[in-house]
Design goal:
Immunoglobulin-like; 5-stranded mixed beta sheet; 5-stranded antiparallel beta sheet; 450 residues; 5 helices
Protein backbone atom coordinates (compact mmCIF):
# COMPACT_ATOMS: atom_id res chain seq x y z
CA UNK A 1 0.00 0.00 0.00
CA UNK A 2 1.16 3.53 -0.66
CA UNK A 3 1.91 5.69 2.34
CA UNK A 4 1.66 9.43 1.77
CA UNK A 5 3.51 11.75 4.10
CA UNK A 6 3.92 15.52 3.82
CA UNK A 7 7.40 16.95 3.55
CA UNK A 8 6.69 20.16 5.45
CA UNK A 9 8.40 23.55 5.18
CA UNK A 10 8.37 26.65 7.39
CA UNK A 11 6.46 29.89 6.73
CA UNK A 12 8.83 32.80 6.11
CA UNK A 13 6.54 35.44 7.45
CA UNK A 14 2.95 36.65 7.48
CA UNK A 15 2.69 39.78 5.36
CA UNK A 16 -0.99 40.33 6.11
CA UNK A 17 -1.70 43.49 8.21
CA UNK A 18 -4.98 43.37 10.07
CA UNK A 19 -7.33 46.45 10.38
CA UNK A 20 -6.43 48.95 13.10
CA UNK A 21 -8.82 49.93 15.79
CA UNK A 22 -8.37 53.62 14.88
CA UNK A 23 -10.46 54.73 11.91
CA UNK A 24 -9.25 57.22 9.41
CA UNK A 25 -10.87 60.61 9.05
CA UNK A 26 -14.54 60.37 8.34
CA UNK A 27 -14.64 56.55 8.70
CA UNK A 28 -16.38 54.39 11.30
CA UNK A 29 -13.84 52.15 13.03
CA UNK A 30 -14.16 48.95 14.96
CA UNK A 31 -15.86 48.86 18.30
CA UNK A 32 -14.20 50.80 21.18
CA UNK A 33 -13.82 54.35 22.42
CA UNK A 34 -12.39 56.98 20.13
CA UNK A 35 -9.06 58.26 21.55
CA UNK A 36 -8.86 61.98 22.35
CA UNK A 37 -7.67 64.12 19.50
CA UNK A 38 -4.29 65.81 19.93
CA UNK A 39 -4.04 69.51 19.41
CA UNK A 40 -2.09 71.11 16.56
CA UNK A 41 0.93 71.92 18.68
CA UNK A 42 1.18 68.46 20.12
CA UNK A 43 0.86 66.96 16.65
CA UNK A 44 3.69 69.10 15.34
CA UNK A 45 5.91 68.12 18.22
CA UNK A 46 5.45 64.42 17.58
CA UNK A 47 6.28 64.68 13.93
CA UNK A 48 9.87 64.19 12.85
CA UNK A 49 11.25 64.02 9.31
CA UNK A 50 10.52 60.34 8.87
CA UNK A 51 7.11 60.72 10.43
CA UNK A 52 6.23 63.51 8.07
CA UNK A 53 7.06 61.30 5.10
CA UNK A 54 5.03 58.44 6.55
CA UNK A 55 2.12 60.77 7.14
CA UNK A 56 2.34 61.95 3.58
CA UNK A 57 2.18 58.36 2.42
CA UNK A 58 -0.91 57.78 4.55
CA UNK A 59 -2.52 60.89 3.13
CA UNK A 60 -1.84 59.65 -0.41
CA UNK A 61 -3.51 56.33 0.43
CA UNK A 62 -6.45 58.18 1.88
CA UNK A 63 -6.86 60.21 -1.27
CA UNK A 64 -6.38 57.40 -3.79
CA UNK A 65 -8.41 54.89 -1.86
CA UNK A 66 -11.26 57.17 -0.93
CA UNK A 67 -10.22 57.29 2.76
CA UNK A 68 -9.47 53.55 3.21
CA UNK A 69 -9.77 52.07 6.72
CA UNK A 70 -6.66 49.80 6.48
CA UNK A 71 -3.19 51.27 6.54
CA UNK A 72 -0.12 49.40 5.42
CA UNK A 73 3.44 50.39 5.95
CA UNK A 74 5.49 51.15 2.84
CA UNK A 75 7.72 48.38 1.58
CA UNK A 76 10.88 50.22 2.65
CA UNK A 77 9.62 50.09 6.23
CA UNK A 78 10.09 46.29 6.40
CA UNK A 79 13.01 43.98 5.50
CA UNK A 80 12.95 42.64 1.94
CA UNK A 81 11.74 38.98 1.65
CA UNK A 82 14.29 36.38 0.70
CA UNK A 83 13.96 34.41 -2.51
CA UNK A 84 11.25 31.71 -2.44
CA UNK A 85 13.56 29.19 -4.09
CA UNK A 86 16.31 29.78 -1.62
CA UNK A 87 14.31 29.52 1.57
CA UNK A 88 12.36 26.85 3.44
CA UNK A 89 9.01 25.86 1.96
CA UNK A 90 6.41 28.50 2.53
CA UNK A 91 2.90 27.22 3.25
CA UNK A 92 1.19 30.32 4.71
CA UNK A 93 -0.77 32.68 2.44
CA UNK A 94 0.64 36.18 2.03
CA UNK A 95 0.90 39.16 -0.26
CA UNK A 96 4.55 39.07 -1.23
CA UNK A 97 5.07 35.81 -3.19
CA UNK A 98 2.91 32.85 -4.34
CA UNK A 99 2.33 29.97 -1.90
CA UNK A 100 4.08 26.65 -2.77
CA UNK A 101 1.97 23.66 -1.82
CA UNK A 102 3.55 21.12 0.54
CA UNK A 103 5.34 18.25 -1.17
CA UNK A 104 3.87 14.85 -0.28
CA UNK A 105 5.47 11.46 -0.86
CA UNK A 106 3.83 8.12 -1.68
CA UNK A 107 6.01 4.99 -1.79
CA UNK A 108 5.04 1.37 -2.45
CA UNK A 109 6.11 -0.77 -0.60
CA UNK A 110 6.32 1.23 2.61
CA UNK A 111 9.60 1.66 4.41
CA UNK A 112 10.65 -1.47 6.32
CA UNK A 113 7.89 -3.67 4.83
CA UNK A 114 8.41 -7.44 5.15
CA UNK A 115 7.05 -10.40 3.13
CA UNK A 116 6.34 -8.12 0.19
CA UNK A 117 4.76 -9.87 -2.78
CA UNK A 118 7.43 -9.77 -5.53
CA UNK A 119 4.72 -9.45 -8.17
CA UNK A 120 3.96 -5.85 -7.18
CA UNK A 121 5.51 -2.98 -9.09
CA UNK A 122 7.37 -0.70 -6.65
CA UNK A 123 6.42 2.94 -7.09
CA UNK A 124 7.47 6.40 -5.94
CA UNK A 125 4.91 9.19 -6.30
CA UNK A 126 5.33 12.91 -5.64
CA UNK A 127 2.21 14.97 -4.91
CA UNK A 128 2.73 18.70 -5.57
CA UNK A 129 6.15 17.98 -7.02
CA UNK A 130 8.19 15.79 -9.35
CA UNK A 131 10.36 12.70 -9.09
CA UNK A 132 13.88 13.71 -10.05
CA UNK A 133 15.61 10.34 -9.73
CA UNK A 134 15.08 6.84 -8.31
CA UNK A 135 17.56 4.04 -7.75
CA UNK A 136 16.15 0.69 -6.61
CA UNK A 137 18.72 -2.06 -5.99
CA UNK A 138 18.66 -5.51 -4.42
CA UNK A 139 21.08 -6.86 -1.83
CA UNK A 140 23.39 -8.07 -4.61
CA UNK A 141 23.62 -4.63 -6.15
CA UNK A 142 21.39 -5.43 -9.12
CA UNK A 143 19.47 -2.36 -10.26
CA UNK A 144 15.73 -2.71 -10.91
CA UNK A 145 14.80 -0.60 -13.97
CA UNK A 146 11.83 1.72 -14.00
CA UNK A 147 10.06 4.48 -15.88
CA UNK A 148 8.87 7.97 -14.91
CA UNK A 149 5.44 9.19 -15.99
CA UNK A 150 5.12 11.94 -18.58
CA UNK A 151 4.23 14.55 -15.97
CA UNK A 152 7.20 13.56 -13.83
CA UNK A 153 5.08 12.80 -10.77
CA UNK A 154 5.44 8.99 -10.62
CA UNK A 155 8.24 6.46 -11.03
CA UNK A 156 7.24 2.79 -11.49
CA UNK A 157 9.54 -0.23 -11.56
CA UNK A 158 9.43 -2.19 -14.81
CA UNK A 159 11.77 -4.99 -13.79
CA UNK A 160 10.74 -8.08 -11.81
CA UNK A 161 11.56 -8.57 -8.14
CA UNK A 162 12.88 -11.79 -6.65
CA UNK A 163 11.65 -13.85 -3.75
CA UNK A 164 13.50 -13.65 -0.43
CA UNK A 165 15.45 -10.51 -1.32
CA UNK A 166 16.17 -7.17 0.37
CA UNK A 167 15.71 -4.01 -1.70
CA UNK A 168 16.73 -0.41 -1.06
CA UNK A 169 15.25 2.75 -2.61
CA UNK A 170 17.12 6.03 -2.91
CA UNK A 171 15.07 8.78 -4.51
CA UNK A 172 15.12 12.53 -4.95
CA UNK A 173 11.98 14.66 -5.23
CA UNK A 174 11.51 18.34 -6.06
CA UNK A 175 8.75 20.68 -4.92
CA UNK A 176 7.09 23.38 -7.00
CA UNK A 177 9.90 25.83 -6.28
CA UNK A 178 12.60 23.39 -7.39
CA UNK A 179 13.92 22.53 -3.92
CA UNK A 180 14.96 18.88 -3.66
CA UNK A 181 14.60 16.27 -0.96
CA UNK A 182 16.44 12.90 -0.98
CA UNK A 183 15.32 9.88 1.04
CA UNK A 184 16.20 6.21 1.49
CA UNK A 185 13.83 3.34 2.23
CA UNK A 186 14.01 -0.46 2.20
CA UNK A 187 11.79 -3.56 2.10
CA UNK A 188 12.09 -7.35 1.90
CA UNK A 189 10.16 -9.71 -0.38
CA UNK A 190 8.42 -12.96 0.53
CA UNK A 191 10.78 -15.44 2.17
CA UNK A 192 11.27 -19.00 0.95
CA UNK A 193 9.01 -20.37 3.68
CA UNK A 194 6.06 -18.57 2.08
CA UNK A 195 6.71 -19.51 -1.55
CA UNK A 196 4.20 -21.79 -3.25
CA UNK A 197 5.04 -24.06 -6.17
CA UNK A 198 2.98 -26.39 -8.36
CA UNK A 199 3.43 -29.38 -10.67
CA UNK A 200 1.33 -30.10 -13.76
CA UNK A 201 0.46 -33.44 -15.36
CA UNK A 202 0.67 -34.27 -18.24
CA UNK A 203 4.10 -32.80 -18.69
CA UNK A 204 4.92 -30.50 -21.53
CA UNK A 205 5.66 -32.27 -24.81
CA UNK A 206 3.78 -35.45 -23.83
CA UNK A 207 1.34 -37.30 -26.06
CA UNK A 208 -1.52 -38.84 -24.09
CA UNK A 209 -4.86 -40.51 -24.63
CA UNK A 210 -8.06 -38.53 -24.97
CA UNK A 211 -9.22 -39.54 -21.49
CA UNK A 212 -6.35 -37.90 -19.64
CA UNK A 213 -7.47 -35.15 -17.20
CA UNK A 214 -5.10 -32.34 -16.27
CA UNK A 215 -3.87 -32.47 -12.69
CA UNK A 216 -2.20 -29.58 -10.83
CA UNK A 217 -0.60 -30.40 -7.50
CA UNK A 218 0.36 -27.45 -5.26
CA UNK A 219 3.15 -27.41 -2.72
CA UNK A 220 1.00 -25.41 -0.29
CA UNK A 221 -2.73 -25.36 0.51
CA UNK A 222 -4.75 -23.12 -1.81
CA UNK A 223 -7.33 -21.18 0.19
CA UNK A 224 -7.91 -18.53 -2.46
CA UNK A 225 -9.09 -20.95 -5.15
CA UNK A 226 -10.86 -18.32 -7.22
CA UNK A 227 -7.63 -16.34 -7.64
CA UNK A 228 -5.72 -19.44 -8.71
CA UNK A 229 -8.41 -20.45 -11.20
CA UNK A 230 -8.27 -16.98 -12.75
CA UNK A 231 -4.49 -17.26 -13.05
CA UNK A 232 -4.59 -20.55 -14.98
CA UNK A 233 -6.07 -20.87 -18.46
CA UNK A 234 -6.58 -24.00 -20.55
CA UNK A 235 -6.88 -23.76 -24.31
CA UNK A 236 -7.21 -26.53 -26.89
CA UNK A 237 -7.21 -26.65 -30.65
CA UNK A 238 -10.54 -28.44 -30.30
CA UNK A 239 -11.92 -25.40 -28.42
CA UNK A 240 -13.40 -27.51 -25.64
CA UNK A 241 -14.53 -25.70 -22.48
CA UNK A 242 -13.19 -27.15 -19.25
CA UNK A 243 -14.16 -27.30 -15.59
CA UNK A 244 -12.16 -27.63 -12.41
CA UNK A 245 -12.70 -30.05 -9.56
CA UNK A 246 -10.77 -29.54 -6.31
CA UNK A 247 -10.16 -32.87 -4.60
CA UNK A 248 -8.26 -31.13 -1.83
CA UNK A 249 -6.69 -27.74 -1.08
CA UNK A 250 -3.53 -29.00 -2.76
CA UNK A 251 -4.83 -30.86 -5.79
CA UNK A 252 -7.19 -29.97 -8.59
CA UNK A 253 -8.12 -31.69 -11.84
CA UNK A 254 -9.39 -30.12 -15.04
CA UNK A 255 -11.25 -31.78 -17.90
CA UNK A 256 -13.74 -31.06 -20.69
CA UNK A 257 -17.31 -32.34 -20.59
CA UNK A 258 -16.47 -35.26 -22.89
CA UNK A 259 -13.11 -36.79 -23.73
CA UNK A 260 -10.56 -34.59 -25.45
CA UNK A 261 -10.80 -34.61 -29.21
CA UNK A 262 -8.28 -36.88 -30.91
CA UNK A 263 -5.04 -35.35 -32.19
CA UNK A 264 -5.63 -32.07 -30.40
CA UNK A 265 -3.14 -29.74 -28.73
CA UNK A 266 -3.88 -28.62 -25.18
CA UNK A 267 -2.04 -25.71 -23.57
CA UNK A 268 -2.10 -24.91 -19.86
CA UNK A 269 -0.90 -21.38 -19.08
CA UNK A 270 -0.07 -20.75 -15.44
CA UNK A 271 0.41 -17.14 -14.33
CA UNK A 272 0.95 -17.93 -10.67
CA UNK A 273 3.86 -15.61 -9.90
CA UNK A 274 2.69 -13.32 -7.12
CA UNK A 275 -0.76 -14.90 -6.82
CA UNK A 276 -1.74 -15.07 -3.16
CA UNK A 277 -2.84 -18.60 -2.30
CA UNK A 278 -3.98 -17.60 1.17
CA UNK A 279 -2.38 -18.14 4.54
CA UNK A 280 0.54 -15.92 3.53
CA UNK A 281 1.56 -18.23 0.68
CA UNK A 282 2.45 -16.68 -2.68
CA UNK A 283 2.90 -18.37 -6.06
CA UNK A 284 6.50 -18.26 -7.25
CA UNK A 285 6.39 -19.06 -10.97
CA UNK A 286 4.76 -18.66 -14.35
CA UNK A 287 4.82 -21.55 -16.81
CA UNK A 288 3.20 -22.96 -19.92
CA UNK A 289 2.58 -26.66 -20.37
CA UNK A 290 1.51 -28.01 -23.74
CA UNK A 291 0.65 -31.60 -24.63
CA UNK A 292 -1.12 -33.41 -27.47
CA UNK A 293 -3.67 -36.16 -27.62
CA UNK A 294 -3.38 -39.22 -29.79
CA UNK A 295 -6.19 -40.85 -31.75
CA UNK A 296 -9.38 -41.54 -29.84
CA UNK A 297 -9.07 -45.08 -28.44
CA UNK A 298 -11.84 -46.69 -26.40
CA UNK A 299 -12.19 -50.29 -25.17
CA UNK A 300 -15.70 -51.29 -24.02
CA UNK A 301 -15.69 -54.37 -21.76
CA UNK A 302 -19.08 -56.03 -21.19
CA UNK A 303 -19.51 -58.71 -18.54
CA UNK A 304 -22.83 -59.70 -20.12
CA UNK A 305 -21.06 -60.89 -23.27
CA UNK A 306 -17.57 -61.50 -21.82
CA UNK A 307 -16.12 -59.38 -24.63
CA UNK A 308 -14.04 -56.27 -25.22
CA UNK A 309 -14.92 -54.14 -28.23
CA UNK A 310 -12.23 -51.73 -29.42
CA UNK A 311 -13.02 -48.40 -31.11
CA UNK A 312 -10.42 -46.16 -32.73
CA UNK A 313 -11.56 -42.69 -33.77
CA UNK A 314 -15.09 -43.93 -33.41
CA UNK A 315 -14.70 -46.96 -35.67
CA UNK A 316 -15.12 -50.49 -34.29
CA UNK A 317 -11.88 -52.33 -35.14
CA UNK A 318 -11.60 -55.39 -32.88
CA UNK A 319 -13.56 -57.64 -30.52
CA UNK A 320 -11.79 -59.84 -27.94
CA UNK A 321 -13.02 -62.41 -25.40
CA UNK A 322 -12.25 -61.57 -21.77
CA UNK A 323 -12.37 -62.92 -18.25
CA UNK A 324 -13.19 -60.52 -15.41
CA UNK A 325 -13.29 -60.53 -11.63
CA UNK A 326 -14.99 -63.46 -9.93
CA UNK A 327 -17.95 -62.91 -7.55
CA UNK A 328 -15.60 -62.16 -4.63
CA UNK A 329 -13.57 -59.67 -6.65
CA UNK A 330 -15.96 -57.93 -9.02
CA UNK A 331 -14.37 -55.73 -11.68
CA UNK A 332 -15.26 -52.04 -11.14
CA UNK A 333 -17.57 -50.49 -13.69
CA UNK A 334 -17.59 -47.14 -15.43
CA UNK A 335 -14.72 -45.35 -17.10
CA UNK A 336 -11.08 -45.98 -16.26
CA UNK A 337 -8.03 -44.45 -17.89
CA UNK A 338 -4.78 -46.28 -18.50
CA UNK A 339 -2.31 -44.94 -15.93
CA UNK A 340 0.84 -46.77 -16.97
CA UNK A 341 2.02 -49.76 -18.98
CA UNK A 342 4.57 -52.46 -18.17
CA UNK A 343 5.66 -55.25 -20.45
CA UNK A 344 6.18 -57.39 -17.35
CA UNK A 345 4.67 -56.51 -13.98
CA UNK A 346 5.18 -58.20 -10.63
CA UNK A 347 1.93 -59.02 -8.84
CA UNK A 348 1.79 -59.69 -5.12
CA UNK A 349 -1.38 -60.74 -3.29
CA UNK A 350 -0.15 -58.85 -0.22
CA UNK A 351 -0.73 -55.58 -2.11
CA UNK A 352 -4.49 -56.24 -2.01
CA UNK A 353 -4.50 -57.40 1.60
CA UNK A 354 -4.18 -61.17 1.15
CA UNK A 355 -1.79 -63.41 3.05
CA UNK A 356 -1.02 -67.12 2.81
CA UNK A 357 -4.05 -69.20 3.82
CA UNK A 358 -6.58 -66.51 2.80
CA UNK A 359 -9.15 -67.31 0.16
CA UNK A 360 -7.89 -66.05 -3.15
CA UNK A 361 -4.26 -65.82 -2.04
CA UNK A 362 -1.65 -66.41 -4.74
CA UNK A 363 2.12 -66.44 -4.54
CA UNK A 364 4.08 -63.58 -6.17
CA UNK A 365 4.01 -63.83 -9.93
CA UNK A 366 4.79 -61.90 -13.11
CA UNK A 367 2.12 -60.95 -15.63
CA UNK A 368 2.66 -59.82 -19.21
CA UNK A 369 1.34 -56.86 -21.18
CA UNK A 370 0.10 -55.04 -18.07
CA UNK A 371 -1.96 -51.85 -18.42
CA UNK A 372 -2.81 -50.31 -15.03
CA UNK A 373 -6.33 -48.90 -14.63
CA UNK A 374 -6.49 -48.12 -10.88
CA UNK A 375 -4.17 -47.46 -7.98
CA UNK A 376 -5.71 -50.45 -6.17
CA UNK A 377 -4.36 -52.86 -8.76
CA UNK A 378 -6.95 -53.37 -11.52
CA UNK A 379 -5.25 -54.02 -14.88
CA UNK A 380 -5.92 -55.10 -18.41
CA UNK A 381 -3.30 -57.83 -18.92
CA UNK A 382 -2.56 -61.15 -20.48
CA UNK A 383 -4.50 -63.84 -18.61
CA UNK A 384 -2.46 -66.22 -16.47
CA UNK A 385 -1.86 -69.59 -18.02
CA UNK A 386 -4.28 -71.22 -15.57
CA UNK A 387 -7.02 -68.75 -16.57
CA UNK A 388 -6.72 -69.04 -20.34
CA UNK A 389 -9.36 -71.85 -20.64
CA UNK A 390 -11.91 -69.53 -18.99
CA UNK A 391 -11.38 -66.45 -21.19
CA UNK A 392 -14.71 -65.56 -22.77
CA UNK A 393 -16.45 -68.19 -20.64
CA UNK A 394 -16.22 -67.41 -16.93
CA UNK A 395 -14.81 -64.82 -14.59
CA UNK A 396 -11.84 -66.06 -12.56
CA UNK A 397 -9.66 -62.98 -11.87
CA UNK A 398 -9.25 -60.71 -8.84
CA UNK A 399 -10.91 -57.85 -10.72
CA UNK A 400 -8.58 -57.49 -13.68
CA UNK A 401 -9.51 -57.83 -17.35
CA UNK A 402 -7.76 -60.91 -18.76
CA UNK A 403 -7.04 -61.30 -22.48
CA UNK A 404 -5.64 -64.11 -24.60
CA UNK A 405 -1.88 -63.72 -25.29
CA UNK A 406 -2.15 -62.44 -28.88
CA UNK A 407 -5.00 -60.07 -28.01
CA UNK A 408 -3.11 -58.78 -24.96
CA UNK A 409 -0.03 -58.08 -27.09
CA UNK A 410 -2.11 -56.14 -29.65
CA UNK A 411 -3.87 -54.13 -26.95
CA UNK A 412 -0.57 -53.30 -25.23
CA UNK A 413 1.00 -52.10 -28.48
CA UNK A 414 -2.06 -50.12 -29.62
CA UNK A 415 -3.35 -48.45 -26.45
CA UNK A 416 -1.38 -45.79 -24.55
CA UNK A 417 -1.59 -44.03 -21.17
CA UNK A 418 -4.59 -41.75 -21.19
CA UNK A 419 -6.71 -44.06 -23.33
CA UNK A 420 -10.08 -45.16 -21.99
CA UNK A 421 -11.47 -48.51 -20.86
CA UNK A 422 -15.19 -48.71 -20.06
CA UNK A 423 -16.54 -51.70 -18.11
CA UNK A 424 -20.23 -52.61 -18.05
CA UNK A 425 -22.61 -54.95 -16.21
CA UNK A 426 -20.39 -56.41 -13.48
CA UNK A 427 -22.60 -55.22 -10.61
CA UNK A 428 -19.72 -53.37 -8.96
CA UNK A 429 -19.60 -49.62 -8.32
CA UNK A 430 -17.83 -47.29 -10.73
CA UNK A 431 -14.15 -46.51 -10.41
CA UNK A 432 -13.69 -43.72 -7.86
CA UNK A 433 -12.09 -40.53 -9.24
CA UNK A 434 -9.01 -40.87 -7.04
CA UNK A 435 -8.66 -44.61 -7.74
CA UNK A 436 -6.80 -43.46 -10.80
CA UNK A 437 -8.33 -41.17 -13.38
CA UNK A 438 -11.97 -41.94 -12.65
CA UNK A 439 -13.02 -38.32 -13.15
CA UNK A 440 -15.24 -39.30 -16.07
CA UNK A 441 -17.57 -41.14 -13.69
CA UNK A 442 -18.60 -37.82 -12.14
CA UNK A 443 -21.35 -35.92 -13.93
CA UNK A 444 -20.54 -32.55 -15.47
CA UNK A 445 -22.56 -30.45 -13.02
CA UNK A 446 -21.00 -32.10 -9.98
CA UNK A 447 -17.52 -31.83 -11.43
CA UNK A 448 -17.66 -28.03 -11.39
CA UNK A 449 -18.43 -27.91 -7.65
CA UNK A 450 -15.59 -27.18 -5.25
Amino acid sequence: MSHFEPIRGTALWDSTVLCTDTPGPGLRGSRGARPPRAGPVAERRRLGRGSKIALAALLVVGVLGGAAGVATAPTWARPAPSSEAGSPLRTEPGLVVPVIKPLELGVTPTDGAQEVNPAISPQVKAVNGTVESVRLVDANGTVVPGETSADGSTWTATGALEFNMSYTYEFTLADGAGRTTTKKQSFHTVTAANEADAAVFPRTGATVGTGQPIQITFSEPVMNKEAVEKAVTVASTSNQPVRWHWYSDRMVRIRPETFWAGNAQVTVSLKLFGVEFGGGMVGNFDAEVSFTTGPSRLAVVDDATKTMKVFIDGAHVRTFPVTLGDPDWLSPTGYAVIMEQQRHSNFNAGSIGLKPGDKGYYPPLTVEHANRLTTSGVYVHQALESAIPYVGVRNVSHGCVGLLPADAAWFFATFKPGDVVQTLNTGAPAVEPLEGWGDWNMDWATYAKR
